[in-house]
Amino acid sequence: MKQNSIRPVQTILLSLAIPAAFLLTVFTWQSIRLFLTRSTLDYFYPFLKASAAAEDAAAHAALAAGKSKNFLASSLAKMQEEVMRLSSQNASLEHLKQENRQLRALLELRQFSGFRPVFSEIIARDPMTWDETFLVDKGAVNGIRAGDCVLAVFDAPDGEGVVTAVAGRITSVSEHTARVSTIFHEDCTLSVFLAESGQFGSLRGKGRGEEPVISWLPADGKYGRGEIVLTGGLSPQTPAGLYVGTVQAGKDGNVSRISDHLYAEAELKAAAKISDLHFVTVLVREADKP
Predict the structure, then answer these.
(1) Which of 179, 159, 177 is nearest to 169 (CA)?
(2) Rounded to the nearest 5°, which phi and psi values hold at 244?
(3) Model confidence over 184-205: pLDDT tens digits?
(4) SS3 42
(5) Which of 108, 123, 156 finishes a domain?
């Protein structure tokens, strides 16, 4: 009878013990897992921290590099703009210096007996014949006539200083303008004198960007490379002794060649550099003064 009364009590205690054990097991596992998690994190913390720091450093470096690249690109663009501006200023200064040299030399041009200088500015050019013809701002009202000799100032061949030389001749005149055919143009002819050989010849332009040719030289003459060529003064509109250029060897290497078995020809290295010319002086005979 007593044993029968104990069994219900054991059953109740057992039924309570199983959930309690389960709860204790769950609680214990949670505690252990939390402990293990914290221990693991504490153990790996330095490594995780270092990795995060490295990622942050890489991100900052990439950002800085991007900013630096943009800054360098912007700086380079500004520097290029400044270089272009300074180059433009330098070109303008060189242009002004060249014009100043031309003007000063023309103003100091020596006087030629029986002639007066008419200072003129080039106001128009034909792009197709840039070095062969141009228009100046003086004309018939200034006494200019077709055939008048035109002088200009050029840089000396050795690069030291300037030289005054023949640029061409007047070929047509209006009331206030005149057209110049340079010594490179086929319409321009001049009597010339070779200073060393003492021979006279006739200079004519060839056009097409080629150097002028000195024709009608004595066939038996001896002509040297670099020989100075001056105006001969055979035309009443051109004074004698004006500098024109020097004799140079032709494409075949010879200084002179015989033409038609009658006369010699030589090629001129002209002192005139027409492409950068801005001002000229026209020599007008005093008798033609208006």
Answers:
(1) 179
(2) -115, -40
(3) 999 999 999 999 999 999 999 9
(4) helix
(5) 108
